[in-house]
Design brief:
Layout: H1 2-45, E1 71-74, E2 80-87, E3 90-92, E4 95-99, E5 104-110, E6 115-118, E7 125-128, E8 134-138, E9 144-149, E10 162-168, H2 170-177
Parallel strand pairs: 2-5, 4-10
Antiparallel strand pairs: 1-2, 2-3, 5-8, 6-7, 9-10
């Protein structure tokens, strides 16, 4: 009979341990669900501090996104601002030139439909919505080229909508910027 009571005692211990792990697992799942709900409500009730707009019908005629103002420009504080436009089925400029080790602000918008703004091998991934300006901070540490495809379906020529970001040495970039107001790699 002793073996039967040892079996019952072992089963009771196992059941107790299983209940504890069930409670711990349910607690972890509950915590994660609560965090997701909080994040969703907080994001929904706390919109962006500011939303910048641009008239897509006059982008090329006046304002920040006229063709002579597109590309990379050095700001007074030493940072670089890149202005770009997505339009069916190309980006302007087609090749963006940026320096290494410098704070960069990408300012981009769309002239017609929703486009994707993705720079491969980085965390830059946004949508370009007509009428709104997307502002994306970045910093590149290593020289090289990054493909920039449109990753939002924008029409029948979508698959051919590509550009590139060329990252060059900081000193070389600033030497080039001393001679020109705006830089692209197709000069």
């Amino acid at each position: 009979m002793t073996s039967m009571s040892e079996h019952d005692e072992g089963a009771a211990v196992a059941a107790r341990i299983e209940r504890r792990w069930t409670v711990v697992s349910a607690g972890i799942v509950g915590l994660l669900v609560g965090m997701a709900i909080f994040a969703g409500i907080h994001k929904a009730t706390m919109p962006q501090a500011w939303v910048e707009t641009a008239n897509p019908q006059t982008l090329h005629i006046s304002g920040e996104f006229v063709e002579s103002n597109l590309g990379s420009a050095v700001e007074a504080d030493g940072s670089v601002t890149v202005r770009a436009i997505g339009q069916q089925f190309s980006f302007t400029p087609q090749c963006i030139l940026v320096p290494t080790g410098t704070p960069i602000s990408f300012r981009a918008t769309s002239a017609d439909v929703v486009h994707g703004f993705l720079i491969d091998h980085t965390n830059i991934n946004s949508m370009l919505v007509p009428g709104y300006i997307s502002v994306l901070p970045a910093k590149f540490d290593v020289p090289g080229e990054h493909p920039m495809p449109c990753q939002e379906f924008c029409g029948i020529g979508h698959e051919g909508m590509w550009a590139k970001v060329k990252v060059i040495d900081k000193a070389t970039f600033f030497k080039m910027a001393a001679d020109k107001r705006r830089l692209t790699c197709v000069e």
